[in-house]
Structures are given as C-alpha cells and as structure tokens.
Design a protein that fits this description.
Length: 310
C-alpha cells in the first residue's frame, strides 16, 4: 500500500522497521509467555499509527472509487446533477452508500474482503448498522441484513452525539437533551449553592449541553421553552416539588448585565445564531460537499434560509 502511494523504498523500509521491530508477550496466569513479532497491523497508542491508518484508508477509498467508475457498486444520488456519494469517512468510521439489492451487497462484500486481506482490518459487525429507504421492502431488508450479519439502525440512535435521522417528530428525536439537563440540575438541587453559584452552573454547564446540537439542528420551540423552565426553576432555588416565586421574567433575566439582566442565553435566539454561523461557513466554502451534492442548483442565500427554517 505504501509503495502504491508513491513512497520511496527507503521510506517504506523505515516504516516497516517501526512495525516489525516491536514484540508482544501474552500474560498467562500473571506470567509473560511467548514472543510475538508482528508483521502487519497498527498498535494503539503508537504515535505513528494514525499516519499508517490514513494510508490504509486510502486503499479503501481507491477500491470504492474504482468500482464507482465501473458502475459495479452504485452510490447514492441526492438529486439530479451532483456526483453520487459512495463513501463518507470520519476518523475510523466509514459510511458506505449503495443500492439495496443482494447482488450489489455481495459485490461490496468481495471488495471489502480484499481490503481486509490487504490491511488486516476487519468490519466490526457489532458496531455496524444499516439504514434503508422507506421504499425497500421488509423482506429485502432482512435478506440484506442476514447477508452482512448486522442489525438495522434505530431512528433515535446517536452518532457523534447527534441523531443521524430526525424523522417527523423532532420532540422525540431530541428528547434526550431535556433529560440530560434535568438529570444535571437534579444532581445539583440538593447542594447548597448561592444565587451566584447557580448562575455560574447554568451558564457553564446547563446551557452548554444543547449548544452542540443547536449548531446543527433547529430545535422545536417547545423544547427550548421546557429547557428554559428547568433552568429558571433551578436558578430561583426550587427543590423537587417545592415552588419558588420567580421574581423576574426569564426574558428579563436573559438581558445583558448592562441592562439589568444576568446574561443568560435565550435558547431560541441562540439556536438561530448558531445555524446562521453554519450558513456563513457555507457562503465562504463554496466547494464543500454539502453544496456539491445536496443543493447544486440552489443559490447560497437560499441555502442559508433553508438552514434557518429547517
């Protein structure tokens, strides 16, 4: 693989010396036993491993590019005009797109087997899930999942902390955010915090929990209101079923300290501002994959409004 990427033979030799010079022993009854010298594979924690891993992934990308050109495995096309999506990568995770038929998946298995034999890496079936279009019948879905030995992805599962599929009900898709904030606030309610201490906790932790999701999705207004209610109750010192008087409206509390507020973020406005940042990033990066594959015939101004209104 390293030679195919164009590295000099001396560089290849030095890299392989780093791989082959290590040795391993196996603990059997607390006694080191055996002397294993690896000839391939990546060691976790080795500073060289991330670079070698990227080289291996280049092999997977090249294989999928070849079959995409030859139409052996057809990728996903979002709309007319843009290129088809075959593979998306993030760290050591791969998202492969193909037609939902048995023959295509068998050809994809042969392709990945070639990559496994060359790199020594294998698919972790326990961490592999499949997502089908609503147009694919249940019988065909079961046949393809049996072929791979994997399971179907659930609608409300998480990937990188976000739901890969939102569906019709955003309240259900993002219900875990409210639960996380509620659990965090409940764990603090038994502690004796001053008014200033509660303010710092809300700003530094409670408001930070939904911020990552808000930079990618527009949350339902009801969810934002419920989160603000939880924070307001904690801010005024309410414990369990005990009711406290909220002396000032939450909107006033969200004002700047210069205008007499406490400087809390109003979640609805903060959500819109976070999405506007994404729109600004798209305006500056006109060659992004999103622009090329999702909305090639849409103006960038329309894209920004789409992000804010989704």
């Amino acid at each position: 693989m390293i030679r195919r990427l164009g590295f000099h033979s001396k560089v290849v030799q030095l890299l392989m010396m780093c791989v082959k010079s290590a040795s391993f022993s196996v603990l059997i009854n607390d006694t080191p036993t055996g002397h294993i010298v690896p000839t391939r594979g990546l060691r976790q924690g080795d500073s060289l491993s991330p670079y070698l891993f990227l080289m291996c992934i280049e092999g997977q990308v090249s294989l999928l590019k070849d079959v995409a050109v030859s139409q052996v495995v057809t990728g996903l096309q979002i709309c007319r005009g843009p290129p088809r999506l075959n593979l998306l990568l993030f760290a050591d995770d791969s998202v492969i797109f193909c037609v939902a038929d048995v023959d295509t998946n068998r050809r994809l298995q042969v392709l990945l087997k070639q990559y496994e034999d060359a790199s020594g890496q294998q698919i972790n079936k326990e961490k592999t899930s499949m997502v089908f279009s609503r147009n694919v019948s249940e019988d065909k879905q079961k046949e393809i999942m049996d072929l791979w030995g994997s399971t179907q992805g659930h609608q409300y599962e998480r990937y990188l902390g976000l739901p890969p599929m939102v569906g019709k009900s955003k309240n259900h898709a993002f219900a875990d955010i409210k639960h996380k904030v509620w659990l965090k606030l409940q764990s603090w309610k038994e502690s004796m915090f001053s008014q200033g201490g509660r303010e710092i906790l809300i700003k530094a932790i409670a408001l930070a929990i939904p911020s990552y999701t808000m930079s990618c999705f527009k949350l339902p207004s009801k969810l934002c209101t419920d989160l603000e209610k939880l924070m307001a109750r904690f801010g005024w010192g309410q414990k369990q079923e005990e009711r406290k008087v909220h002396w000032v409206n939450w909107t006033k509390v969200c004002d700047s300290k210069y205008y007499g507020g406490l400087g809390f973020k109003e979640l609805g406005n903060f959500n819109m501002a976070s999405l506007a940042k994404q729109g600004c990033r798209l305006l500056q990066d006109k060659e992004s994959l999103f622009i090329k594959s999702i909305v090639p015939n849409t103006s960038l101004k329309e894209i920004c409004w789409m992000l804010l209104l989704v």
